[in-house]
């Protein structure tokens, strides 16, 4: 089996909000202890924003380490480009792609492979001949289509279902079905609206009935300004405006429903609606009656992972209040929210466990009413085990597994190179067993891209996974004579980044003629890395990595140097100083003679004030003419490229005749 020891790892430099993605053995991330102190051990020292120059110096060293990592990982990229590989889709447009009809349509399809793949498209299930359509071009070295609609061509002419195929000599990968639909923001149909004459205390519903847009518009109501909403007057989920009871101040000539179509950045408005409230004395109070939903029960289906919205709006005087419960259970904690004055129950990220009966209760002083909504949570397919790329050597066995769940349970179908496997060319090494393809004694001609489709009535998943049959002798990608340096007592991680098919066996030796390394003092990682958990001075030396498989053998030598740790042998001490006096903090260090230390002083974990009274010497910090604002904690940080150590002491500034109240003490911190 093919094997490569480099993992895809994300490195976070949280203090600066930086994010670097590199291919590297994950155990080597920030192997520089100094970087660990400042990036991973936030409790060691915290730096205020903006980042000060002291932290910038530390960060420069850390970033230099990461640059070395990136350069080393580029060796893999160079080698990777020399190995044949079936296509992999790397970027594609969403399945449901709503486009702006005023702009060119861009349908993305990017893929990688060796040799680089060629691209083709189908539209509505048949070959889409791009060369015969003057409005359509394909980007160079890409499968992305650009449809030019600036020459009077309507976007509607290009509605349809598109699918991209990326193909090379090793196989063919396919994209999802991409449904292209232009957004629409139609006008309201003209209608004659009669004035609404309503008795004070009665309920009222003003219908919006917005035009059907794509995507659906956002609805809001206004009169001559923003229309305030309350427990008594509010907008429903369907866009209608509900009055639990009308009051004389609701009389208006210009209730207007607006539909905002964000995709086309347009707003349409309905004709103004007039409401006239007439009074009759006395105003009769009324018990609650539900305006929506109607009846005593209703049903609601929602999909797993979506937001569940349930609504109850009631009429009545006084205005009813709404309460929600789940029959036979509790509303899910941390995922339940109440909106629109508790008329809307919102549950985020629903799952099958949220199915059940939800009851809304509307109550005022004259009584109550309720409605039960039976919720069923269905699920479009979701992955249990998505198929993963498989690299084998001739004669090896392997499996592709495709497992998905959903409600209802999805059906699994397989394709090879974009063709249903039942009608694809036969391969004697391949056997399909439901959600698994079993490969036995593969040959190089068995290389292909397989597609797994998991589908039910609510959607589908499509995954590409290639089977790449390679015969490659071992190659070691770690640079020859690479130098590793660590501090005594800390772990040493020595790389042997390798490639081969079948998977090479790795052995380590110390010294040119040394014996093979074994024993509890070493850890041998599957990715080839040799770990010495506690490196000592006698661990220094030459280490040889040997990689072998049935096609050959190769080896590589690297060097390990173990350095003495940096120590502060005389740390700063607690000081109580009178105003206007002079104070000095010592920071005497001992370090490995081959390492160059850098000493940084901080005040309260920030850089020192820009003040000529602060004098930084080789082994001390002196503050002249001390003032009250010099009160605080002073930290000496000693950095080398391999380790970091710090010590802190408090300075207390006092007036005369108060020194006798203080005892000597030191605050010491060793990171």
UniProtKB/TrEMBL annotation:
Location relative to the cell: Cell membrane
Please give one Pfam family short name. Answer: Ig_3
Q: Where is the Ig-like domain?
A: 87-175, 182-274, 287-378, 381-468, 474-561, 565-652
Protein biosynthesis recorded as keyword:
no
Recorded GO cellular component terms are: neuron projection; plasma membrane
Key words, A-Z = Cell membrane, Disulfide bond, Glycoprotein, Immunoglobulin domain, Membrane, Repeat, Signal
Q: Which domain of life is it from?
A: Eukaryota
**Protein name according to UniProt:** Neuronal cell adhesion molecule
State the taxonomy lineage. Answer: Eukaryota, Metazoa, Chordata, Craniata, Vertebrata
- What gene does the UniProt entry assign to this protein? NRCAM
